[in-house]
Amino acid sequence: MGVLSAIGELHVRPFQSLLSAADTLLRSESLLDDLGRIGDVARPVVIQGGLATDAYMYEPLADLLRSRGFQDVTATTLDFHGFGSFQKDAQNLSTLVAEASERSKLAGGDGLVTVLAHSKGGLTARWYLQKLGGVEHVDQLITLGTPHNGSAPYGTRLTALGGMFPGMTSLRQLSASSREVHLLNRDLPGFMNRARLQRPEFRMVSIAGDIDLPMLRETDGMVSNGSSRLDPSIEGLVNLVFKGHGAHHGAIAGQYGVHEATLRSATILASGGPLEQAMTGAAILSGGA
After folding, report:
1. Model's pTM, two decimal places?
2. For the domain 3-287, what is the CATH superfamily, name and number?
3. What is the H or E stretch that residue 243 is in?
4. Quick one: which of 62, 95, 143, 222 is 20 to 30 A from 243 by CA?
5. φ, ψ dihedrals at 162, nearest 5°
6. Residue boundaries of the structural domains of the chain
């Protein structure tokens, strides 16, 4: 087993029993039951995972969406358990989105796809949109616990550690001082202006959790609310923060554990629902679509 595979296994193995429990909870017919089959006429959804994850860890989230009527939901398979570069993951995402777009057209749809991204996956998705022309196929990006401004926990120590292993590119890229984070944020105003000219309803929504515990307030236990914040002065960018002891990094995406408020918001947004409905229960709202 290679170094990266071993690290990935060490990360995910302790959560396998929790994933099983989360899967059971998310399959429950009562979760978000009041939304009915809100996704019956929704566009396809592609779920982009984060660091030290893989597609199977997002099956509970995919199953929840399917239970709410979503017909076409796909989770990406990640190279090196998500330790690969933004660029490589963005290429893989591009392929899946193109396939989903084609399925939409064959079914009589408009070919547009919603990308629902967790953690590092949000930066991967932004690289795809901002650098690879993905906006042609994507109607909106919804991120959950994404360090849009770089992740402090992946700062100098882990950046140095990442430099020791050639394949752990994403650890370096996640740093707040990385070239990739700088480029994405520097170019975001121009990108959003062009995207909204092409499609006025295009939006990016950052959903964050705040577990509201001593020493961990204004974080989801891994990513700070400040890091997850998109620039609210840019039209089409929205930030939602949901507080609660269960609003931790895994639960806000149904990865392990369940945080109903964030899952409800993401489901409403993915269905094409209005922001006003999706923001119910949010402690902080900034920006506007």
Report:
1. 0.89
2. Alpha/Beta hydrolase fold, catalytic domain (3.40.50.1820)
3. strand 237-243
4. 62
5. -60, -30
6. 3-287
